[in-house]
Amino acid sequence: MDKFFEIETQLIYEIHHLEKERAKETLRSLIDLIALRSGKETIRQVRNYYIVLSSVMARKLYEMRVPPKKAFAFNVACVELVEKHMNDSEFLYVADELIEFFTSVISERKQPSFGHQTVNKVVMFINDEVERDLSVEDIAKHFNISTSHLSRIFREHAGITLVEYLNVRRVEESQYYLRHSDKGISDISKQFHFCNQSYFTRIFKKYTTVTPKQFRDSQHIPYFRYNLPNAK
């Protein structure tokens, strides 16, 4: 066990630098060490470690100036994931899902590098407040600029309209609730402020090519991730 914390430090570094596949391999190494020490208690001890690791990552997010409510919600979501899937056949699947979740949330904290600082700030604001019922007017008011000017500079620098980016982020975030919670699809639709479930399904399929139900029913469908096209 001498190398355990050294490897864990490597894992946190890889997550922070979005080295997702390396992080998955490193977490497997930690699981192997836990298994060597735990014997028949391996599943229980790995479960406990997943929860501890989730708390460590929540603290890291807080240190990266993630709003406290979001850091706490992140930790709760991780624990729910573990509680739902932790058994003999799925504990390695849980490891991969946690890394996917960790790197996704960390990536939101990477300061965008568009040529307009207001656009960079708007992206970070949306990432932090994605579960609020935001409109273009709300965002423009928050930054004390006109809606037309905000819409123009956002599309010019980000290569996507502000409304589209709001929908993209809501779809991305909704995936975790679809896969790791027992919330109904209509409830998730309301949570992310789509006008109705039908519209949520249409927007979700537009970006992921599958319906929310298809995504929920298959663990093999990969998560949708959107890369802003004009980021430097």
UniProtKB/TrEMBL annotation:
It comes from the Bacteria. InterPro entries: Homeodomain-like_sf, HTH_AraC, Tscrpt_reg_AraC-type_HTH. Keywords: DNA-binding, Transcription, Transcription regulation. Residues 120-218 form the HTH araC/xylS-type domain. One of its GO terms (molecular function) is DNA-binding transcription factor activity. Coiled coil: none annotated. SMART domains: HTH_ARAC. This is AraC-like DNA-binding protein. The lineage of its organism: Bacteria, Bacillati, Bacillota, Bacilli, Bacillales.
